[in-house]
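Hi P.,

Sorry for the delay on this. The queue was packed all week, but I finally got your sequence through. Input first:
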Amino acid sequence: MNKNAEMLGNSNVKGLLVKLSLPAIAGMAMNALYNFVDTLFVGRGAGEIAIGGLAFAFPVQMIVMAVGLMVGMGSASIFSRAFGEKDPKRMHAAVNTALVLDVILAILFTVLGFFFIDKLLVFFGATASNIGYAKDYLSIILIGLVPLSLSMVLNNLTRAEGRAKVAMISMLIGTGLNVILDPIFIFDFGFGLGVQGAAIATVISQIVAFIYIFIMANGKHSSLNITLRDGILLDFKMMKDIILIGAPTFLRNATGAFLSIIIYRLINYYSSGDPAIYISIYGVINRVITFVFMPAFGIVQGLAPIVGFNYGAKKEKRLLDVIVFAMKIVIVYFFFGFLFIQLLSTSIFELFSANHNMEFITIGSQAFRVLSIGFLLVGFQVVVSSIYQSEGFPLRATMIALSRQVFFFIPLVYLLTYLLGIEGIWISFAASDILAGLISMILFFVEMKKIRLKLALELSQV
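Then the structure:
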């Protein structure tokens, strides 16, 4: 505990951010490969329409992931600040309450998912051509929701105690195993199970990754202090704090799931023919964007324990230095992400099409180029939301998280699809990212000014 506290509170913050972020970046990128690899192998093994089946399972997966991230980020924020304040009792309460809360919520979603699976898929907008694929995939994925969600909680808590490498290894294990198992379960040279095989490979990988992170979290080098015998004794005050602080993360990810449902239904309404090809295009874009965004989320996950610890320890200079450094990295990263999509969007869609379907490739690549324009400013929103969350200001973080996906995107997508048809969906993504980015940029400079004023006051009193 003293070693990790020394690292978070006294080591060079730029080097520390790199040290904590690189494993998180690798881990988050590998985690994003779960769905990316599933989509890639299914597209090449079962055809472009089958990708739409996976796309309809995406909202359910996203909501459960949002729950895991909510509990994980909320408890990690409390743990980090308690770590900085040297409060082991609060650290212990944050960890154990988070695990029990997450298990309860994940089981609830699993049961409800099985009970309402057909109604959910129809509500999402599944059609006769892809609902079979969606049900085959989702009915198996539901089995793995508990280990998936718990892994996310423990990954965040492990990073919060300064053991980012352990969290990275957990994600690498899960993704690496998924990449190996996917072709074995999907293609005819193996079990030949198609979409169901992709789901089975994913669930097995998630279970193995959870077993590893759980063992490490109970090891002698961990400060998490998990005590299963206290499991049923929920600290309701702590539970409330975890949910409130983690709410921005939940809203950001769960809102993405609800937006997917809105988009599926708009595609069904405005498509002149079978909407399945457009659903599959959006499925590919969603998977690739998740993959592109994960390194940026890895950076802010590396940032979170540093901000939380030093905010709790009232070390303003370290707080200022690490936030400014992180923002520069994220802005530059998203600029290169923009260039990547602009130059390679056609190649990306060719990769997902075994039959080289020109309609799928042409429409998809054009849509992706338009959508990626918003990458130029979205980095401000990602970092500012994380700063507020790490410092324990859930309402501010929630407003930032909602600005992009709710306050701007929803009215824009209904207006622009009415005026422009399906093309309005891609323009709405870019416009909402730019507007939310501009607001976050202003707030970023305001917050940096506040920290500088506190630092100046602190120095004047020395």
